[in-house]
Here is the input.
Amino acid sequence: MKTAVVWHRNILRIHDNPLLDMVHDKGHFDHVVPIYIVTPEALTEDYSVNRKRFLFQSLLDLKKNLDAHYKMPLLLLQGDVNQILSRVFEALDSGEVELICDYCTHPSRRTELANVESLISEKADVSLTIVSSANTLLDIETVVSSPSYTEPKSMKDMQKIFKRAFKSTSEHFNVPEPRKKVPNLPLVKRVSKKLSTDKKISKHVLSEKKIASQLGKDSKEKSYFPGGESEALDRVDRKISDNPAYINNFSKPSTVSTNERNNPFEPTTTGLSAYLAAGCLSPRLVWRLCVNANLTGPHTKPPVSLTGQLMFREMFYLLSRSVENWDSDVGNSNCKNIEWDDLDKEKVRLWEEGKTGFPLIDAMMRQLDATGWMHHLGRHAVSCFFTRGQLWQNWKYGRDVFDRKLIDSDWALNNGNWLWLAGVAPFSMPYFRIYNPCPTPGTSLNVETDEAQFIRHWIPELKSFPSKYIFEPHLASEKVQRESNCIIGVDYPEPMVDRKISRKNNLAKFKESLSRL
DNA sequence: GGATCCGTTGTAGCT
DNA sequence: AAGCTACAACGGATC
Here is the structure.
């Protein structure tokens, strides 16, 4: 009797799922038991309400899909990983067990896996199979440990790495196809029932009540991005499969345009980040659909194309694995030592709560808090504001806020993007490019724009304010403020800094810090 | 080996 | 009023 325990770590889907693929291809298992073990921080304040909701929606969707396609009940567990796995192995007391899981690059998850490896090395009838690159295009470990590997800093470097890894000089590098959905797997009801009723295991099983509490009450704001593979694939169809022109024209703006920065109701980007981060969506599938669209005609190319975005994602995964202390401002070869001010909790609080007195910054921070999402250029603007632009706070404190609140939180990418934006990394944007937190509307000063609507949507205090003053309401006359039912300094804060002075001072401070390196 | 180019993503001020 | 220009100026790759 052979049983496969399929441990889904960061892969919450059944399409292009190499774990299920392996079970199917080996073909010799009598039983398959899919499990998921919730990591401790997912149940604490380390995750915002939105992040929790996204994760648990995704888990319930995985459960539903496994059941619908394979009649496999997913065991949702919480607790110490080695303790849980030991009990699972004990409960499956007859025959061989093969534990199959996906590889994750995050340091704590590598430690977790190392502990599991040592547990299994003591057990004669249990073996372990680790599937690499379930959630990346490249096999991160293989690339990073290759003798020819040097740390990438640009798209050119990434193109070289892709050429070598896939042994292809073609435009799309012959990245492997996503796998077809596995047609069928053995029935597993009996074994899983045995597991879920086992006393030692059942105390680790997440109850319906516990799951419901993680899902929380319906948020007041309609969720832009409900969690789960089903939602991911729907969105892929809408944005990519049914819309090749969108992919072929996809290009990040070279300047911050009013329209690009904010469309609060539907992003101009794909909105797939959260699904990729949680493993609800296969990056190979996205790559393939981009290639299919590209083959139909002229198209944008890396770095601005969507394939380029996926390649930057790979770049940060590689760096996060090869750079020591990737998430730290000390002992990190990719972080220049800039003399930031000491942590100022009050400044961080005003920024985090959207009370800086800069309406665009505040609107975006309130959107992040309410929905767990922010447009990428919004992220640039608020993180630039927090670091070298205005507040001169260390990037790591802003990084922590993003990590807790974003539904697309991803350790490798979040740190990489903050390093990039703070201007401290070798791959950074030039430090003197400071975003203006108060961009004036592109056309006539009193014309209604997307951005003005966006501000009024998230900052109801300003809902009657004229567009002319919406970015800097403190400049409006007392009369205008009274007529708009919003007195600055009473109903909405004064700007917490003089943006022109702090910009100028910070530019000089950055230059000075660099000259001391 | 020195000069030049390039790097996903800017801003302010003037005309 | 859109478009130009000055600003500021790192470091590695390329020629």
User: Anything to note?
Assistant: Confidence is low (pLDDT under 50) at residues 254-262 of chain A. Chain A has 23 helices and five strands.
